[in-house]
Amino acid sequence: MVPRRLLSCFGRGSNSKAKNPTASDHHATTHDQTTEEQRRGGPVVVELFSSQGCATSPEAELLISRLGRGDFKDELDVPIILLSFHVDYWDYMGWKDPFGSSQWTVRQKGYIEALKLDTMFTPQVLIQGTTQCVGTDQDAVLSNIRSAARYPSPTLQATFERPSADTLQVSLTGPLRTKIDSRGVDIMVALYENGLVTDCPKGENKGRVLANDYVIRKFEKLCTVKDISAKKSINGTVNFALWEGFNSSKCGVAVFLQNSSLQTFGAQNFQLPENL
Known about the structure:
By secondary structure, the protein is mainly beta. It has one domain (41-271): Immunoglobulin-like (Sandwich), CATH 2.60.40. The protein is built from 4 helices and 17 strands. It has helices spanning 36-40, 57-69, 102-114, 138-147; strands at 7-9, 23-24, 28-32, 44-50, 80-86, 120-122, 124-127, 131-134, 157-164, 167-175, 185-193, 196-200, 208-212, 215-225, 233-241, 251-258, 264-271. The strands form 5 sheets. Strands 2-3-9-10-15 form a 5-stranded antiparallel β-sheet, with no helix packed on it. It has a 4-stranded mixed β-sheet with strand order 5-4-7-8, sandwiched between helices. The chain has a 4-stranded antiparallel β-sheet with strand order 14-11-16-17, with no helix packed on it. The chain is globular, with a radius of gyration of 18 Å. Mean pLDDT is 89; it is low at 1-5 and 13-35.
């Protein structure tokens, strides 16, 4: 675990669309996404590192939910993909975040090292893996999204299947629309859930009802690719172990390319169909 002296819980002022399925049956649903937004430039990936054990994280979570609802359309004419990673290093404060994971803590630590930051904190927002700010700083979040570099979105076709009651299989095929050099990139696949509500009886948010959207439930690498043209098709499959109470109508899948420095180059989002 990262030493606690390097951890901070920051608040304001600290320095620091998916398409409808094109084919479906009882077993599988396929999405094929080609939009004008993808031709102009793909969406910006916004990652929030948060914790139900951090007193200021709920404010950042609300900002993420509002971004997802489109509350800032007049100020932010940029497509976005939102992902909320709940870390586990505040669990010792008295409340164990039910969505927290040491895997997400390790991911945040990777960003801290890549960006040469001194402090690991929540709530933290990363934009395209290259810029960061305190997650409660609305102006900084919006500004960083507006100024972020945008890349062509992959035009992947995604097929969703349930080979068993507790497994979701995601198969992807299609061109990345970005030339990949010899350094290569990882293709990451995230399964997230919206509409989560938690009564918090302990810790810094004791007595509060916490609402969370875009919460990462599963996260896997599809594959690593290198030395391929923008038109070359890739294909692969990931299997996600599902949790009790899984409801596909509340979930989505995000796919994005990321290099060894954790910079994001292109992304695509799929909403899971109902009754999958």
